[in-house]
Amino acid sequence: MPAALHGEVHLTDSSAESRSRALNQFLASIELKAFKIAQAALRHEDDALDAVQDAMLQLARAYGERPAEEWKPLFYRILENRIRDMQRRRTVRGRVMAWLPSRGEDDDEEPDAIAQAPSPEPQPVKRLELDEAVGALERALSALPRRQQQAFLLRTLEGLDVAETARAMGCSEGSVKTHYFRAVHTLREQLGELYL
Amino acid sequence: MSPMPEELTPFERNARVLLDESVSRIDGRTRSRLNQARQAALAAAAAHERRPFWWRSFTLMPAAGAMAAALLAAVVLWHGEPTGQSPLAEGQRPAAVEDIDLLADAEALDLMEGWDGSSFYEWAAAQNEPSGQSDG
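^ inputs. structure came back:
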């Protein structure tokens, strides 16, 4: 085999490897925040994990060859579609289940004794306040309309700018600004100024 | 990726701190599952890339076939649709169609202008009278 061909093959392999490395770094950098965003929307840990996993798979398969700077808005667009699919499916399932006789919720799930046991260590006051603030923010976020929640989390948690958020949400920049403004307004009304 | 260029308000800054705190509290089990999901995604992408181009094209065949079938059906329906005169003869057209024609007719509206109603009754009475009476 000619040397040039060897070189070409080697170059192609290394290019694929470097892309895989870059994709790995990218996914590692966003997976926790993506999980939080999915969890806020779906309010279910396993569903949120499934949604993030599906989004990762689709991005890697279908868009892995796209420039790396496009990955983040693309990933969140895919994740949003996945979340919407799951919410639709859940609505349909809820309608079907409403016709079936109730068995009571979580009959088969026993409470985790370790998780429910009180912590032997007394929590410092500051830590307790932080816990309460995080909990209050998460609850208020869960109650927001979906688009407002999405705009707020993509901008504040993920740090996307308006244009990137618009690409991720599939809407205009003006809509992003409106959703974001309304989200901040509602959260501030409910939580005050969040003094830390 | 560009950072947010806008100035954040204290509320937004504090919200970000709380959200970062919330992310940092994600438990080890969830982190492990996310890591596994990432590795699975990368492995799937690598396997997808290793497939020859003709195979990747072959996997798109069902979607392409469905699209072609839909296109064919659309073309057949389009050409099969009658484009000339209505199949109903002029005298067989339903009354509703004629009503629509009347309503859509701008000239009929012109005729209505200046009509006070009394002329209609005069015309109707004249229709019922025998022709001799009306003349004399």
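The two ends of chain B are 99 Å apart (CA to CA). Residues 10-78 of chain B form one domain.
thumbs up if we can close this ticket
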